[in-house]
Amino acid sequence: MPKYFTQAQIDAFKERGYSDPIRFMSPAEMRTFRERMEAFERDHPADDGKLVQNPHLLFRWLDGLVRHPVLLDGLEDLVGADILCTVSAFRRKEPGEGTYAGWHQDAFYLRYDPYFLTCFVAFTEQTAENGCLYVIPGSHRGPILPHEETEDDRSLLTRAQRITAPIDVAKAVPLEIKAGEAFCFDHKTVHSSPANNSKDRRISLLLDILPAHAKRKGSRDTATLLRGSDRYGNFEILPKPKDDFGPDARQLHRHACETRDRESYKGSAKRPPALA
Predict the structure, then answer these.
(1) Closest CA relative to residue 123, chosen from 222, 207, 213
(2) Which CATH number does the domain housing residue 107 bear?
(3) What does the pLDDT read at residue 99?
(4) What domain range is 213 assigned to?
(5) Which of 9, 34, 166, 189 can pair with 5 through a Cys bridge, CB separation 3.0 to 4.6 Å?
């Protein structure tokens, strides 16, 4: 029996390539987490890049958020009882700066067999005005399209990548949700997000979610076991952070980023901001 979604919603996810919202926290509750993240930005400006990759390994409060039982109930309905998270990433889109994410598929640079999901957690309200995510329904049923790496400084993406094949953007739909909500989309779903034209920041946390039986193409990666058990050993399972940005947490974070980036930055001249 599903724990959060109805069977009809699960079937719709498989058909469209994205889920309905998982409502696991109120906007007021999420505001507390936003304030914690922004306090870190103010107090540690030289370490801001560490929020771009695996911040859930740096803070006990963020580790607790990604393990919220209602959020995990929704994830379990989509990937099964044994849930891994291979990476987390804050995406912060400032008002008026023109930063954006071009059309892309997460599966292009990150290959897992049989699949993975991106879980998009809203730290602030996500609207068309502030540059919410747009997806092309059903695009996950097609192939992985050709991409190119660019030097566009306005891009929020790891390698400023974008799809080079024709895309029918007229089919795109906005995924507007409130702070404290989340949705998931398939690793092959074509998506993008435009610039933030509001007066407030747009903040989200992205989680790469996969079943424990999945395998990564290339070198072995690290992962956090969020629920269930790991009977497969396809990933190095990491412990929970012991402190908040303390020496143990920073060491754990650096190990995870170095391990992942050997594969995800292969062939690129770009340097991971989390390791700068």
Answers:
(1) 207
(2) 2.60.120.620
(3) 95
(4) 7-32+48-269
(5) 9
